[in-house]
Amino acid sequence: MSVIQMKNVSRWYGNVVAVNDITMDIGPGVTGLLGPNGAGKSTILHMIAGFLAPSKGTLTVQTASAKTVSTWQNPEIYRTLGLVPERDSVYAFLTGEEFVRSTAKLHKLPNTAAAARQAIEMTDMASAADRKISTYSKGMRQRIKVAAALVHDPEILLLDEPFNGMDPRQRIHMMELLSKLGAEGRTILFSSHILEEVERLSGTIQVMVAGRLAASGDFREIRRLMTSRPHVFNVRSSDDRRLAALLVGHPYTTAVEVTGKGLQVRTSDFGAFCAQIAVLTRDHKIALRELLPTDESLESVFGYLISSQGS
Amino acid sequence: MSSYFNPTIAVITVRATLGRRRAFLFAIPAVILIALTLVLRASRHGPGVLWPDRVLGDFGFSVLLPLTALIVGTGVLGAEIDDGSAIHLLATPVRRGSIVVTKFAVAAAVTMVFAAVPELLAGLLAPNSGGLAVALFIGALAGSVIYSAVFVLASVLTTRAIAFGLLYVLIWEGLLSNSIGGARILSIAHYCLGIANAIHPDQNLNAGLTLATSLILGGIVTVGALVLATRRLSTFAIQGEPA
Description:
heterodimer, A: 311 residues, alpha/beta, Rossmann fold, Alpha-Beta Plaits, six-stranded mixed β-sheet, four-stranded antiparallel β-sheet, B: 243 residues, mainly alpha, globular
């Protein structure tokens, strides 16, 4: 099992800070690196991949053999690490099979043909492997890049916006593949600015906003920890108006609105609200028919993080 | 050196170099040289006219060789760095020195084919120039090696390698090294002329350096360029977008 360790890592270009004092550990499984364009996601991936030196701080990878090594100026790390860059540039004059097999040869694998075939099959590219990459769609190019990055069976796989250009079927296949690789114990880190991708693929996220690590961990837990922002619940009960009056009397309730379909309750304390509403309805003999958090999507987590960074 | 040569990189580089449209550019100076030679041969100059020295020496070493080496040398690695495909090569455990040496070897070989061989053919086509043809061919072989090392280095150092190369060839070699004696010690064209003149002495070649000086300086420039290119490639960084 491999772990990526970043400690107080910053990266700046002249006077512009791209990544600011990031500390995080990324272990086995699938981790999503989420943030808007320009948040510093690619800079972090490039630093982890050894294609950028941190301006400050330390960035190391602890490999399965328990070695802790830096990735900067260390080509040997690519025996452990695979990279799928965002830029859509590959050797377009090669066929898919030639490209993946060439990568296997550069890794000096014992059976390059078998390794290439396996990686191509994993990415569902076998039917197009004999075609030149110049004839591929953007999604196919993405997949053949993933095949090349997987050909040496790396412990760590870094993917920069891997779903760009993929159609829905290809996207689902790629999500299943990454989930499987993560479940096998590999450390998979992918960047995305599309919340739905991260939400579906990864429970663990690292949220970047304006070069800073805005949040880290399970995205639902992150939402709950943000007590400074109201959580919104839709509530239906046997007596909505009486329940509204009872809720208003508690400090964790910031607002209650009676809607046509019940109540919309804003609370500053997710845990206290969930625990107390059950007690409250039981004690006052109100039947609780629905308790539904409305803002648990990653979209809302992301929105809150961005607005809290801006305020 | 052979342990640094990587056949997989070489095959990809040859296919990339000869597959690009600008591969046609390699052939243009060579075609001009051979066509010029044929035209001059057909025009039947008198025995006192020394056009082979001028055409093969001046055009061959001042235009054909450096321009071909410039296009090839800056393309073998620089084009991949510019379009981003180099990252697929660099994200492997291949030694950076191996990448540089292999790219350099391909550049030198392609330059030999498109510049040194045409120089030999043109020399053999010219009247009474057998000895000169062989001398210039060997000089051009040496030039292919030295120019390729320098232009591979330039392509790793800057995205404006072609502009840098043109300035070097036109201003330094074409102007300064022919008018200021001291400038010749940093002129690859003069290293080539020095080698050719040692094999087949000819005053019209205007060689300003001895064989020993040419070989020593040529060796230092070649090895130095390759070492610097390797060091530079070892610190290759993707230029990211600031947040």
